[in-house]
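From the shared-data thread, chain only:
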Amino acid sequence: MSKKVIVEKEGGVTVITINRPEKHNCIDGETAQLLYEAWSKFRDDRDARVAILTGNGPSFSSGADLKALDTLRLKIHMIPSLLLMEKDI
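Structure, as tokens:
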């Protein structure tokens, strides 16, 4: 199974890629958790200056994975800390 989120860093640039092209990069609970972890690492990395969020394949993201909504319900707590980020996204 491939990684649902890929993080690459070159210099001060961090590229975070949602990697579920077969599902048009829709977000399930696991993907949300991995994105949260990637953003948290970016936020805490003093050398990281800019983050680019992208999607693998023809779609950036089709939104929530409707077949896995139950896995997303507990992820709401992540939103406030991401909104307070003081770096360019």
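Residues 29-44 form the longest helix (16 residues).
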